[in-house]
Amino acid sequence: MDGLERTIAAHRAVGIATAGTHATEAESHVPPILTTDQGVRVAVVSSTYGTNGIPLPREAPWAVSLLDASDTLERAARARGAGADVVVVHMHAGDEYSCTPNRQQVKFATAVTASPDVDLVIGQHAHVVQPITRLNGTWVAYGAGKLIAQSGPAQPWTYDGYLATFTFTEGEGGTFSATSAEFAPTMITKHRRSTAARVIVVADAVEAGRLDADELRASAARTREVVRSMDVPGLDEYGH
Questions:
Q1: Torsion over CA of 5, 9, 12 and 14, rounded to 10 degrees?
Q2: How far apart are CA 63 and CA 53, in angstroms?
Q3: Which ranges constitute the DSSP H helices of 114-212?
Q4: Window from 9-13, 95-99, 187-191 with minimum mean pLDDT
Q5: What percentage of the chain exceeds 90 in pLDDT?
Q6: Which of 124-138, 187-201, 224-238 has the lowest mean pLDDT?
Q7: Torsion-angle region of residue 138: left (phi > 0), alpha (psi -120 to 50) or beta?
Q8: Residue pair 136/110 in contact by the 8 Å Cβ criterion
């Protein structure tokens, strides 16, 4: 609990909002709401499948939001009631190094997207790219890979990733809906003593003649195959 509180305080000291972990019980009931430059209020409701075997403090069972669709929907409804125009659900779940969403991910995403209080679902945890799809008409990005990695050569896919953009448009009555979805394959370079790791947007790097073009294209091809594996219409790639 001391570490959790210290981490939250460190984030807040530099202006980073946190979701899914809570220093007080009162905070656990109020998802963070961020306001965009256009004045749109976006709430983030986050939860995780577990805590790596570390038990939650007996005196603070609310410190970490565990993956539960009913609890998530309650928090999404509270966020909407607090004035959120868009509610994003973040799930930390999945089988490590598997590009296929597991049963828990699919069940959770299916349940929360059935609610009008949820506008987008994003995920992470598998350390590799997972598909983007739609459930109940709502976009679900199961996993975008990693933004930094240092794995062995037997796991090249851990260096693959993507950046995604979901565009929301205001409709009648002031409600917002996702009207487009785009992604751009990325690749992480390896860290060496004299070279820092970097996240590379593949298309930009190929155009600029940076790095090994064949390696970049192979990474992007793996990402495209996985991201589009559920064959969902309306999912575009930047520049394509």
A1: -140
A2: 15
A3: 202-208
A4: 187-191
A5: 82
A6: 187-201
A7: beta
A8: yes
Report the run of H or E that residue 204 belongs to, with start and end: helix 202-208
Q: Which element (helix H / strand E) includes 161?
A: strand 160-170
Q: How far is CA 20 from the centre of its chain?
A: 13
Contact 167/154 with Cβ under 8 angstroms? no
- For 13, phi and psi rounded to 5 degrees? -65, -25
Mean pLDDT along residues 13-39: 94
- Per-residue pLDDT, averaged over 88-97, amounts to 96
Model confidence over 166-192: pLDDT tens digits?
A: 999 999 888 999 999 999 999 998 888
Separation CA 78–CA 56 (nearest Å): 24
Q: How many residues does the chain have?
A: 240
Amino acid, single-letter form, for residue 200: I
Tokens of 46: 């986050």
